[in-house]
């Protein structure tokens, strides 16, 4: 993971007495923002907490010194530094004079989105949820670069506040080959979104901070035209989105439906229930819980339906760090409508509404090293010829067996595995991991194999 922050350019625009403090600060790589308020001591906010930079208080001259060295403030009271991603926001008094500055450090972090690379390759629209300051803009900037440079897509960024590609007519190198359309006024963002599709033939549209009903409507319109969307909005989790009327249309919208007496009795619910109105504009939702832990909803339609029916939402958690491999977990609370397996090798095997169920290995010396051994596969309700074709094309050494006791893993159709308790119990006793596919075809099997061994 590489970081390009151009921090020196921000420091060089600060008052002189602060430049010396920050240039040699031992934690400057952890700097989030610098706060300069009139009559108060300057404060630096790091990931580890705040710290005063000087005993000297900020004067009118200090604020004036900095505002003259940066770009002009927009109607949103935001400015920037040429060819960087830093953002300077101002606070004004009743006479509209600037008496406070918040200098936010902008960083282009390369490699952040390796944890969701498979989701980008699915070509589905992705919505990123998170609290302000959690790093949503950094993530979509890197997504735009990967889609444009590595996947060679035609990517257009709708940059309303110039936070994605910087405050300059020349976009920051952090977006790669992606193109950037600036928005003159925030209230015109929805118009620029539509204009981008009509005039520039993008394959992907990237939007930061979808917040109004007009922007939601524009996003739905773009999705219906077959263009992939990548966007962000504020919220902690999917539930916040469902309960937010202006944004609910991003996930299909919510409506009250009145059931007949017989149907209500059959479902065991009240006659008036909540249901999803339409297909979601975004098919995948990523909740940024922490910078190193994300919750993934790979099938938004099913997640929303489960929530509205009062069941627990199936979620996938992906954790990563600079020193360890990516860890993928699938979590849920048991419900009568789902089927749960457990084995000694895994914390949990969850049969969810996904391409396959997710397996989370324990860190144990007795773990089966599938990559270093010849694969011994027990196929269940799956064509041996199809499985052979996939594995041979991908260059794996394998053996197909009809004796489950010799198997190193089991691959089968989920709907059939649910009904075979004898098989699953035997697998549990023998500590054999089971991988269940929703559908049996070349694409699904090859995707599972890539997930396991790459």
From TrEMBL:
Record flagged with keyword Plastid: yes
Residues of the AAA+ ATPase domain: 122-261
Pfam family, one: PTPase
GO molecular function: ATP binding
The keyword ATP-binding is annotated on this UniProt entry: yes
Keywords: ATP-binding, Chloroplast, Nucleotide-binding, Plastid
Domain of life: Eukaryota
InterPro entries, A to Z: AAA+_ATPase, P-loop_NTPase, PTPase_dom, Spore_III_AA_AAA+_ATPase
Name the UniProt record assigns to this protein: AAA+ ATPase domain-containing protein
Organism of derivation: Halamphora coffeiformis
Gene: ycf45
């Amino acid at each position: 993971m590489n970081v390009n922050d151009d921090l020196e350019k921000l420091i060089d625009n600060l008052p002189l007495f602060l430049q010396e403090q920050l240039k040699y600060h031992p934690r400057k790589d952890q700097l989030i923002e610098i706060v300069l308020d009139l009559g108060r001591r300057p404060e630096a906010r790091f990931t580890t907490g705040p710290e005063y930079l000087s005993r000297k208080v900020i004067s009118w001259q200090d604020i004036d010194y900095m505002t003259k060295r940066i770009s002009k403030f927009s109607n949103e009271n935001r400015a920037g530094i040429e060819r960087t991603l830093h953002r300077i926001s101002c606070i004004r008094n009743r006479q509209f004079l600037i008496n406070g500055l918040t200098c936010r450090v902008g960083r282009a972090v390369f490699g952040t989105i390796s944890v969701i690379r498979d989701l980008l390759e699915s070509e589905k629209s992705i919505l990123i949820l998170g609290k302000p300051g959690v790093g949503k803009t950094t993530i979509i900037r890197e997504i735009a670069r990967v889609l444009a440079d590595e996947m060679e897509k035609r990517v257009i960024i709708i940059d309303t506040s110039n936070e994605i590609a910087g405050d300059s007519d020349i976009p920051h190198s952090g977006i790669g080959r992606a193109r950037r359309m600036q928005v003159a006024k925030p209230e015109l963002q929805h118009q620029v979104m539509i204009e981008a599709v009509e005039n520039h033939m993008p394959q992907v549209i990237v939007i930061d901070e979808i917040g109004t009903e007009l922007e939601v409507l524009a996003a739905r319109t773009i999705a219906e035209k077959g263009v992939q969307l990548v966007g962000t909005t504020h919220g902690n989790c999917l539930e916040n989105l469902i309960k937010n009327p202006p944004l609910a249309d991003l996930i299909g919208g919510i409506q009250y439906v009145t059931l007949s007496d017989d149907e209500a009795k059959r479902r065991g619910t009240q006659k008036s229930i909540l249901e999803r109105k339409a297909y979601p504009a975004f098919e995948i939702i990523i909740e940024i819980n922490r910078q190193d832990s994300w919750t993934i909803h790979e099938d938004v339609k099913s997640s929303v339906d489960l929530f509205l029916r009062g069941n627990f939402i199936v979620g996938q958690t992906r954790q990563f760090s600079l020193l360890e491999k990516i860890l993928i977990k699938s979590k849920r609370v048991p419900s009568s409508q789902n089927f749960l397996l457990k084995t000694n090798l895994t914390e949990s095997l969850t049969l969810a509404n996904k391409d396959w169920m997710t397996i989370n290995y324990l860190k144990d010396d007795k773990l089966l090293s599938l990559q270093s051994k010849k694969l011994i596969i027990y196929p269940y309700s799956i064509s041996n010829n199809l499985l052979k074709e996939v594995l041979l094309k991908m260059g794996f050494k394998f053996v197909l067996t009809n004796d489950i006791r010799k198997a190193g893993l089991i691959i089968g159709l989920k709907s059939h595995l649910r009904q075979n308790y004898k098989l699953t119990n035997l697998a549990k006793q023998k500590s054999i991991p089971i991988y269940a596919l929703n559908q049996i075809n070349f694409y699904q099997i090859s995707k599972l194999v890539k997930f396991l061994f790459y």
